[in-house]
Every structure is written in C-alpha cells, then in structure tokens.
C-alpha cells in the first residue's frame, strides 16, 4: 500500500515543530523533514527571555528539545533528508529528497532563513577563523579580544551588547549615519562602556594568514580607506556579521509566490497560492520574526491544513 502522509512539514525549527505538534495531536499522519540541525536559529540562542511562559534560564536548545519531545509524544515522524525537488501540481504533493520520495495531502513549508553574508573578499576563508554569524555560539572564543559587530538593526545592537560580556572592546560598524535599532535598545547600547560605534563605515576586505588578522574599512562619506590590524599580542580579532537574513526558499521559486526578497507570500491563514501548501515561520513575509510568531504560524498552518484535507479528501 502506498505510503501517503496527511501532512508533511519541511523544516524542524520552531514553526515546523509547532506544525508537527498540532498535526500529530489532531491525529493526522505527520512527517517532519529536516536537512540540517533540528531547531533552526533558536538553537544558537543562549537565553530565551521573551518567549511567553519560558522558565528561568531557558535556552534555545532546551526549548527545542521540549518541542521535539512533544511532537514525538503525539506520534509525529521525523527524518533527516534534503528535499531537492517538489511537485505541487497534483492533489497529492510529491517531495523528492536525496534519500527518498515523500507524498502528502498537505505540505507546510517552514524552511526558515539564514544569515546574510557581507560578500567581501576573505569572508568565506575566515568563517570560523575570526568571522562568525552567531554571538552565542562563538562569543566565548573572543574573551578579552577586540570584536567588531557589523550591522545596525535590533539584532546587531543586541548581539553587540551580548559580546561585551566576553570581548574587551566591541565596535558596531554601521553603513548609515544612525542606528536602525529600537530606541530602547540604542539607549542601553550607548550606556555600555565597552561599546563603540563607527557610522558611515563598511567592510571592504578581511585579511590574514590562516586566521583573521586585519580588516579593511571604508568611510562611505569621505571615501577614506584604512586597514585595522589585530593587536600584536592577540594575533587575531572577531568579526560578527548581523546584516539580516535570507529566506531558504530557492527550492520553491516558480512554484510558490514570493516577494522580491524571496519570502513566501501567504494569507493570514498561512495559505500560499497553491491549495494544500502552507508557509510558516521565518521563510514567510511578515513583520516580526521571533520564536513566538514562528510557533503561531506553525499552529495556524497545521490547523488550516487539517481543514483543507477534510474538505478535499474523502475518508
């Protein structure tokens, strides 16, 4: 007998796990497919203080572990595979992975987003050797070193403040003449004695021999270019990049409607332009990308998928 799932979820971050929990709890035959680490971006977060009801000292990994446990308690299946092709043309949706093919009556796309790169020479070579995209993952490595945080939004400023717990000095490098972060966040940053800000400045190149040893900056107003070298005793320094995220939606180009940045377009009930296909979490166009909104998306998508199946498939 052909194995057809009621609900297939692509991605096991908070949105995907929430969809899986709601799907399995509704007695739908539910499959969660994840190509990488379970949990998405939240597993790199040391503290989860703004998730309603989170216990003191809750971490991203501990929250995700509980979500996974809940999904399993209700019977959701979870496998690791990389989906390389999708066919949403028929009533039964077909997903082709590197390890197998999967068929489902409804699909929730919860593929998330990944950090945007600077795109400058040396960035790739020194990733993990001075360049990082995750303060909670790598901040400790730069204890008593000098660190530069690239960006000017909420995340950049918040992460820069977090890095001051480790680094002896943190400099925010922002391409504009004022930060874009919320005023309340800026106020905290301005009061931090270990934090400085370079305005109207961009990174042009990252240099070193095996590890990051210097950064080439450019002032966008004056055109001045200069090279900042790591302290001789340190031998290296840190560059943390916080310039936004890119939705992981390339797989669905030409199949699902997106905005000009590649975020999936859905209605308030998470429906995409294809009946039976829903979007949830950071890969969806929305005003706020947080764990709480991702889990809400996943719950809504799953409930609407159940409704779609009830209306379109006979028992």
From TrEMBL:
**EC class of the enzyme, as a word:** oxidoreductase
Give GO BP annotations, semicolon-separated: removal of superoxide radicals
Q: Which reaction does it catalyse?
A: [thioredoxin]-dithiol + NADP(+) = [thioredoxin]-disulfide + NADPH + H(+)
Name the keywords, alphabetized: FAD, Flavoprotein, Oxidoreductase, Redox-active center
Q: Which domain of life is it from?
A: Bacteria
Which Pfam family, giving just one, matches this sequence?
A: Pyr_redox_2
Q: Per the record's keyword annotation, is RNA-binding included, yes or no?
A: no
- Describe the location of the FAD/NAD(P)-binding domain by residue ranges: 5-298
Identify a single GO molecular function assigned to this protein: thioredoxin-disulfide reductase (NADPH) activity
Please provide one cellular component term from the Gene Ontology annotations of this protein.
cytoplasm
Q: Which cofactor does it need?
A: FAD
Q: SUPFAM superfamilies, alphabetically?
A: FAD/NAD(P)-binding domain (SSF51905)
Q: How does it assemble?
A: Homodimer.
Would you identify the family this protein belongs to, as annotated? Belongs to the class-II pyridine nucleotide-disulfide oxidoreductase family.
What NCBIfam families does this protein's entry cite? TRX_reduct
Q: Which PANTHER family match?
A: THIOREDOXIN REDUCTASE 1-RELATED-RELATED
Put simply, this protein is called Thioredoxin reductase
Q: Which organism is it from?
A: Tepidibacter formicigenes DSM 15518
